UniProtKB/TrEMBL annotation:
Domain EF-hand, first and last residues per copy: 54-89, 90-125, 145-180, 183-218
Key words of the record: Calcium
Protein name: Parvalbumin
Pfam family, one: EF-hand_7
Signal sequence bounds: none
Listed GO MF terms: calcium ion binding
InterPro entries: CML21-like, EF-hand-dom_pair, EF_Hand_1_Ca_BS, EF_hand_dom
Length: 226
């Protein structure tokens, strides 16, 4: 009568946030999606690449400042100091969550491209937005506009406003631009695969940011320097 006990009703969507941080991130993107996006096409995102690239590279000096032992990566202690210097207060658990979320290759250090993702997530998720934005503006001018552009680009792709970009949404966005070119489906699939780091068929904002640093070539810096 009461149905099968313990058998939970699972929705068709298999994408559930892995961590508290991801859950907050998805919620923040859903909230942003209600405001709509100024982006009109996937091409309009691509046209902004050079400007975004330049703005992100300007963070290099800040990264080097926080990388106290100059080993090319920020460890968890250095990250704590980084937040402290920026006047951002997080709990130990939040710091650990941010670190684990952004250390994508799990080498116990935040590389430059991971640092950019970290800053953007902090920008998106910190409750005390006004104070944080003032501090970030002083430390990294122009970054706020860049982060807003990235948020806007994600919202444009997230057609159903659920906080994730699916393969079909990516195909739709690229098809709109390519207007039926035969290669557009392949391009969409390739771009989507580059974004879907954990291969679960859905892209969250963090995965989108990592793909973005790769598209504008920021994650290739250290190889070039070697």
């Amino acid at each position: 009568m009461g149905g099968v006990v313990g058998k939970s009703e699972s929705p068709k969507r298999v994408c559930t946030p892995e961590t508290k941080l991801e859950s907050k991130m998805v919620g923040a993107m859903q909230k942003r999606a209600t405001q709509g996006s100024a982006m009109k096409s996937f091409n309009s995102i691509i046209l902004k690449f050079p400007k975004i690239d330049e703005s992100l590279r300007n963070c290099q000096a800040t990264f080097e400042l926080f990388d106290e032992d100059s080993n090319g990566a920020i460890d968890q202690e250095e990250m704590k100091k980084c937040f402290h210097k920026l006047g951002i207060s997080f709990t130990e658990e939040e710091i650990s969550d941010f670190f684990n979320a952004c250390d994508i290759n799990e080498d116990m250090g935040i590389k430059f491209n991971e640092f950019i993702v970290l800053l953007c997530l902090v920008y998106l998720l910190k409750d005390d937005q006004t104070a944080l934005h003032t501090k970030l503006k002083m430390a990294l001018p122009n970054l706020e506009a860049t982060f807003e552009t990235l948020v806007d680009a994600f919202v444009f792709l997230d057609k159903n406003k659920d906080g994730y970009v699916s393969k079909s949404e990516m195909v739709e966005a690229i098809n709109e631009t390519a207007s039926g070119e035969r290669s557009s489906g392949r391009i969409a699939m390739k771009r989507f695969e580059e974004m879907d780091w954990d291969k679960n068929g859905m892209v969250n904002f963090k995965e989108f940011l990592f793909a973005f640093t790769s598209w504008v070539g920021i994650d290739e810096e250290e190889e070039g320097e070697r």
